[in-house]
Design brief:
9 helices, alpha/beta
């Protein structure tokens, strides 16, 4: 598959809706995500942010609408197929093999199948590259359970990167981190965005103003505002609904 040009969205959502019985969690979501842009999703609790991520990655099937990734309709593809073509995702709660070492976790992630069959040498190269980027080289042989929480969050991102994704979805990556850890992780994500499209959910408005290049505000399952972070966050309706 050839890569889309810079004017083509790497992810395109059209008319996305998600209902659970009579409860409509998402309704009419139209959104384009472009490569090289740090795109932030914010909104009050219950706005539908994580549900949107779950629909994009295939954990939940859309009730209505279309999901296109790299120009391909993936609306009906299962999660593992979306992962194989380059859609990576982290979760609010890190999911790691606590009794294995940092390196063993990365090697397993690097061995995961992608578009092409990969051998052991390629898997090791993937894992080495992800380890270097994580800043955890000195913790390579330590059990994951011995790492600080912030280090585990960094490792989770590294595991996702070992699969060489074209797009990375981060669900509250800063949650539970110290200020120093947040600053370090933010810098790492800035570096990643040069080569990988970044879509993240984050509640901290300081991050929204200093880190994101585009902000989408969800409210009651719909897009309330979308655009430049400062313009969006200065909007009276956004401030009323999001800030109270």
């Amino acid at each position: 598959m050839s890569a889309p040009d810079s004017a083509t969205p790497i992810l395109s959502l059209r008319g996305i809706g998600k209902s659970f019985g009579s409860v409509h969690v998402l309704a009419g979501i139209d959104l384009d995500i472009h490569a090289g842009i740090r795109h932030l999703i914010i909104g009050p609790n219950g706005a539908g942010k994580t549900t949107l991520f779950n629909v994009v990655t295939g954990l939940l099937a859309a009730s209505t609408g279309r999901v296109a990734f790299l120009g391909q309709d993936v609306t009906r593809l299962p999660p593992y197929r979306r992962t194989r073509i380059g859609l990576g995702r982290t979760f609010q709660i890190a999911s790691l093999f606590q009794h294995l070492t940092v390196w063993e976790n990365l090697l397993l992630a690097g061995s995961a199948p992608s578009i092409m069959h990969i051998g052991a040498s390629h898997a090791r190269t993937r894992a080495e590259r992800a380890l270097t980027g994580s800043g955890l080289e000195r913790k390579r042989d330590q059990p994951v359970g011995s790492l600080a929480y912030g280090e585990q969050r960094r490792l989770e991102i590294a595991l996702t990167l070992a699969g060489e994704p074209r797009m990375l979805l981060l669900d509250e990556p800063m949650a539970g981190l110290t200020q120093e850890e947040r600053a370090g992780l933010a810098q790492r994500i800035v570096e990643l965005s040069a080569a990988t499209a970044i879509l993240l959910i984050e509640h901290d408005l300081e991050i929204a103003l200093s880190f994101a290049e585009r902000v989408t505000v969800l409210n009651l399952g719909r897009i309330l505002r979308d655009g430049d972070p400062r313009a969006v966050l200065s909007d009276p309706e956004v401030r009323r609904i999001y800030l109270g």
